[in-house]
UniProtKB/TrEMBL annotation, chains A, B, C, D:
Its EC number is 3.5.4.29. The gene is gch3. Keywords: GTP-binding, Hydrolase, Nucleotide-binding. HAMAP family: GTP_cyclohydro_3 (MF_00608). Catalyzes the formation of 2-amino-5-formylamino-6-ribofuranosylamino-4(3H)-pyrimidinone ribonucleotide monophosphate and inorganic phosphate from GTP. Also has an independent pyrophosphate phosphohydrolase activity. GO terms for molecular function: GTP binding; GTP cyclohydrolase IIa activity. This is GTP cyclohydrolase III.
Length: 253, 253, 253, 253
């Protein structure tokens, strides 16, 4: 049974900061957001977790393998090197959406995202080392069937992008409401989904749903593991099987 | 009349590179993609352009102010510092979507995105300095009305994200098909749109369309300028007027 | 008794890479070197180690707290995100210079720094968790007495720099030959030295030596700990005591 | 005749910031310093200038090709993305040391490096485009003859480092006092020197001086150009001639 540890990273008072005393150059905000995300991705990724850029001022991570002290250290390091600070909520559960809801509540209880005084709150719980198992995380790695041939080499870059975004928007809603899962676009034509204990039939159904709804054809590799990296790496290998064999759903467990 | 210079940056052979000889750690791919984007944002942004992360392996930019030699230098610098290289297409036009289509075609003609041999192509045309005017670029900066109060401080972080993604997916399609415009989510609850010569009525109509379709309420500030930065900065100021006055559409020209 | 774990990071085949097929832009090499160093500093620093930029193509680190698997992961991550790769040697000992000599030998035995075929070697030994003690690392943090008042606000920036470099060059040689210690300039007017079990008299003697030799007046804070961070943080606090009390040598143990 | 435009970048109030309210993690300071330097290297380097990390809180650059507005933009961009700010002085002259002295004075007159209130001063003069010539900058690129064979593959990494540092410390002093030149270690075994109009005999003399004083054998390639990049690139090519032909001084003009 899955036991996902989910962390929400929220930049403190970011909206007001971006326009005080004057609006800041957009290119600088983009650079700041991307590099902050990249740093968190390295820190969490080095501990076998995954971070998703999400909205950049709010980033969602699967942090099985990161201790409470790890979260504290990351928060301190960011505070030392950026002109902004992070508030953090951590929670765990068999249901990834519920875990994220709990993590979000931890931060919301500490104060508004635009609260002038809320800075660097850190609340929540992690899974103790002794309680971790190889089933804790289930990751599904979707991509668009033959995106390069069908879209990238054929359409203009924005129309390709629209197709992928429509596919993502449909999948994200379906996986959240039908399967309590959290879906994240990660670049190219790839979507990584954090799932509870789903089965092949659930993935087949999701793929049909998206194809019917927006005419975008997906395939998926699914893996399980003690951490997001372990599960995700297995999922990547399963996806290679889809590519090699022409199948649409492959589970590496 | 707008005359948008659009550049497409496409990483050469990225799909295969990410799985050769074996799939690479996802956190490292995320870090690479984000930092590459951040570097391009700085280079183009320092010349008053805007770059949008788009799909990360394909990035769209408004590069009025960047010469052909600037594009060459950026390509060389990336090749010196990253394990991947960029191919680049540049085009101009009164219609941003058409300009991007032309830029895309330049790259597609040089070879597939997964062509083993296509590396660092650079094709296209820029607007010569002497032909630039203060009307060349029109930027609209949308955000969600009171996102913090309605969503961020109330819903779990994924449900807030879903709302914003649905709003973005609807706006991007509408602006592309109804108004030949290119829309990009830039973090938080912000969407920046690259437009041809649109008027207040067009923006009001777009806002109503999105509200009717997905029940997400947007407001917008619009600016014009010689470069994306000039137009976008004016748009940011116009958006502050919306926030201060409670209006939904403000044009800073 | 100190038991320093020292790691040497050496970029594979860097000299030839920088000029093949043609010399690369110097500013790009500087950016690459600095960002690679920064990444290693974060990785090792997050595990309570210290890395020193040293010559950038060869970097020395105190890695008590980093396991062999940590070194492997860092090597893999760099290989995924940079156009160069690292070879690594790790060794331990009561004598920091000897430990570095052993770490260097590990890399040298695998092949020349400009060996076309040597890539990503990783050899050596770490201190097992169960064998670590609070005395393992001794760090001395030197700075120039009143550098700002005497130099930075008074001389031109290069003459200030010369003074600090001369002080560093003298201290580095003295500490290596008289005290088996490794000294690194870390910016500003700061020099961090990795020492075996030295005593107050050794530091007083070193300070007099440098003052006599090159007329640069140093002060020093010294700390001990299980890791470079623990020892170095104690050293920083001891240095604050020098600043507050006007003393020249303070040991925080 | 050379006409070097020199810029001094000085972080405002850095010393106090690093210890307020408490000393900050050393690894974070190293990361911040290196990444700030890398960003400035990209910005200035993209405009054909060179920046040298120098003391990291004080960085010296040759900025022929950077306008006053470019300096302003860099300062603004850093202020948007870092927890520290920069003060900047720019000056020009036939004598690089004098130009740096003038640039330093500009910053010193605005206030102390540890002045609580001095923030983001920007003072000085640049060379107008119409006054630039192909002789403005002379760059000499020194390296140690066969460093890899003599040192890197033979000695322990610190003893190699000592040799190179001693060579650098001697060259920097000699070039400054005998030849009004500014010397900077740039990694590996490389030293880049910013010179006025020197001739082959001056370089031969400098090489003999260093060899006699500290027994380190250098070779040098020298170039001239309109910018640091142009001069430095020619110098790199001249250095390749030294390596290929076994000569010690090569001038690419």
């Amino acid at each position: 049974m899955t036991n996902t540890q989910v962390t929400l990273f929220q930049i403190d008072n970011y909206g007001p900061w971006t326009v005080t005393p004057e609006p800041r150059r957009e290119a600088d905000l983009q650079t700041l957001q991307s590099r902050l995300y990249a740093d968190i991705s390295q820190f969490v990724g080095n501990r076998d977790g995954y971070v998703f850029f999400t909205r950049f001022d709010n980033m969602v991570a699967v942090t099985n393998g990161c201790s409470f002290e790890d979260h504290e250290l990351l928060q301190e390091s960011v505070g030392n090197r950026y002109p902004v600070t992070l508030s953090i909520g951590v929670a765990t559960g068999t249901n990834p959406v519920q875990a994220l809801a709990d993590a979000t509540a931890r931060v919301q209880e500490a104060g508004s995202a635009q609260d002038k005084t809320r800075r660097e709150c850190l609340e929540g719980r992690v899974i103790e080392d002794g309680h971790r198992t190889d089933d804790d995380v289930q990751i599904a790695h979707f991509d668009v069937v033959n995106a390069t041939g069908q879209y990238t080499d054929e359409l203009n870059a924005f129309d390709t992008f629209i197709e992928i975004e429509q596919g993502y928007a449909e999948l994200m809603r379906h996986m959240r409401y039908a399967h309590d899962s959290l879906s994240f676009f990660v670049g190219g034509d790839n979507i990584i989904v954090v799932c509870p204990d789903l089965e092949a039939a659930d993935y087949e159904e999701a793929i049909h749903h998206v194809n019917d709804a927006v005419d975008v054809e997906l395939q998926v590799g699914v893996g399980r593991g003690k951490s997001a990296h372990d599960a995700g790496f297995a999922a990547k290998h399963a996806l290679e099987t889809c590519r090699a064999d022409g199948t649409r759903v492959e589970l590496e467990f």
